[in-house]
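Dear Dr. V.,

Thank you for agreeing to look over these. As mentioned in my earlier message, I'm a first-year student in the group and I'm still getting used to reading structure tokens, so any feedback on how I've presented them would be very welcome. I ran two proteins. I've put each sequence directly above its structure. The first is here:
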Amino acid sequence: MTPSATKHWWERDTTPGFVLIAATIVSFILLNGPASAFFHHLLEQQIGALSIGVGEGAHPLNLHLIINDALMVIFFLYVGLELKRETVEGPFKNPREAALPLVGAIGGMAAPALFYVALNTSEPAYLRGWAIPAATDIAFAIGVLSLLGPRVPAGLRLFLLALAIIDDLGAIIVIALFYSTHLIGWALGGAIATFVVMLMMNRGGVTALWLYWLLGLVMWGFMLISGVHATIAGVLTAMTVPMRNAAGGSPLIAAEHALKYWVQFAIMPIFALVNAGVVLRGAGLETLLHPIASGVALGLIAGKPLGIMLATYLACLVIKQRAPATAPQMLGIAMLAGIGFTMSLFIGNLAFGMSDLATPVRFGVLGGSFASALLGLIVLWFATRNAHPAPSALTQEEELAAKHGVFEER
């Protein structure tokens, strides 16, 4: 019996991906069934007379805003904790080990953006979505990879994980720089001041997590008003959480474990339920061939693997380091990185909101992600068909790392 067989169903790598697929299917049904009008009204109906923000940046408070600007902060907090852990105690603390996935991730973000821009230069308004195909969904990518079981080399799996984590960091930076509008100076100053206080708490040895959550909530409130997208507060909060306490324990790893299942089985599915579905009524061939849909899909399917492969092998030549796997295996992994889904949908929502352009965005993201998953699986299936299964080696590696607090068991 393999170690994965002894896990509870919610602990398996594939489960979050299947839950997201189920949420997407339900979203399609709700948006195209008899309850579509009620579902839309439920999401967009203003709660009382409440609004978020001031002046031109004010938005009516509704369920859609709560999910995208509040619940997703917790998702980014979780991603931020993972990023810090990998940087402080994980593989990223070694610059040489981090070089290949770092350069690969940069190439994997740049190439899809160029594909998108090339197909949308005729309409300047569409260019705001250039970052949509640049993102990778960690949960889906790792979940799809796990379908191949232990035949996938451990180094290849770690490369995809590192690539996706760095990709998420890049997406966070993009959101902060390019999708923040109507900046309010005093609120931005309040957010910065709160962040500085939290850093001082960290340096002063404060390890009580509830204090960081409380000040993180304050910083989120300032961010929400400031015009900088509020999800950035989640990442900044994660940066201040202590890695170790005086007894050698890890508040950060404890927080990450506490959030893991909430993020995977509540927050991400709820986001997919609200944002992944596409209204099929009136959507014809022109919608499928819309420049936005084509740019997003082509960026994910072709741009991602092309950018990752070129950048990674160029880095191998420069630093004289071997690739973590064979060329066909690397190609399969690069294709799986084209599964954008949650992050791509999130950036698409920031770029175009709930306008008429939301439909081609979703078609492009879902179509491109599905094709990337299928092509990646096919390539990896053939590339690893002669590989010798080694579940015990990977399990031992992860158990050893978990004992030392390097990363959580996956």
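The second protein is here, in the same arrangement:
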Amino acid sequence: MTSEQILAEIREANLSYLMLAQSLIRSDREQALFRLGVSEENAALIAALTPAQMMKIASGNTLLCRMRSDDEMVWGLLTNHGKSSANDAVSRLHASILLAGRHQEAA
């Protein structure tokens, strides 16, 4: 993948993220704050963006969204390495609980 292709992918991911974030915020603000991991102030800013502003912000060379979990335990639960599919739902629930706790700590 060339540098230009990577930048184009970043722009596309940024625009998709901003559009999704704005839609979530407008439809269910509380869920959006939790799912996106953003503050009330940032949510207000994102909700107020015009399409032109979103295009301008998205066109930067920095990825706007980031992985919210850097915890090996959470990644292990999400990927289910070495576990049967019967435990899949329990593992995902456990990971969600851990991530929810971290969201509360950050707030």
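From my reading of the second output: The CA atoms of residues 85 and 91 lie 10 Å apart. The mean pLDDT is 83. Does that match how you would interpret it?

Kind regards,
E.
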